Structure to design on (138 residues):
């Protein structure tokens, strides 16, 4: 069932230089799109760190609690997530995203694993998950 339909007339799709006479967005269509856009292999924080080389350049998802947020650094937000696995220096994963969250939020974050990222000036990340999407988790 389609809910909350939003019609658009003469919709211009800039990305493909096409124009549509009409287009309707709905909750159902947007939910299906969001699910497809956020698909990634679900892993734990500990598993990501233990298998970082094998997961390099792959899309992964982690569900956990936001413990730290640094917004607006180098045109991105850095979101630190813990899921209760891992220990010491590997008890969290840092995601970069254009989205943000608040400390205490429970999220599922999905992005691409990058290894040995060096932004200079002392900002070096052995494991970083970039271009992440964040969704509220239960």
């Amino acid at each position: 069932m389609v809910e909350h339909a939003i019609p658009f007339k003469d919709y211009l799709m800039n990305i493909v230089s096409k124009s549509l006479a009409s287009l309707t967005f709905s909750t159902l269509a947007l939910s299906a799109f969001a699910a497809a856009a956020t698909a990634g292999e679900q892993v734990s924080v500990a598993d990501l760190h233990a298998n970082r080389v094998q997961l390099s350049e792959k899309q992964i998802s982690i569900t956990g609690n936001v413990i730290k947020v640094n917004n607006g650094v180098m045109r991105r937000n850095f979101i630190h997530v813990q899921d209760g696995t891992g220990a010491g220096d590997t008890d969290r994963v840092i995601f970069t995203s254009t989205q943000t969250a608040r400390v205490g939020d429970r999220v599922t974050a999905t992005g691409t694993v990058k290894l040995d990222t060096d932004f200079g000036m002392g900002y070096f990340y052995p494991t970083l998950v970039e271009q992440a999407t964040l969704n509220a988790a239960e």
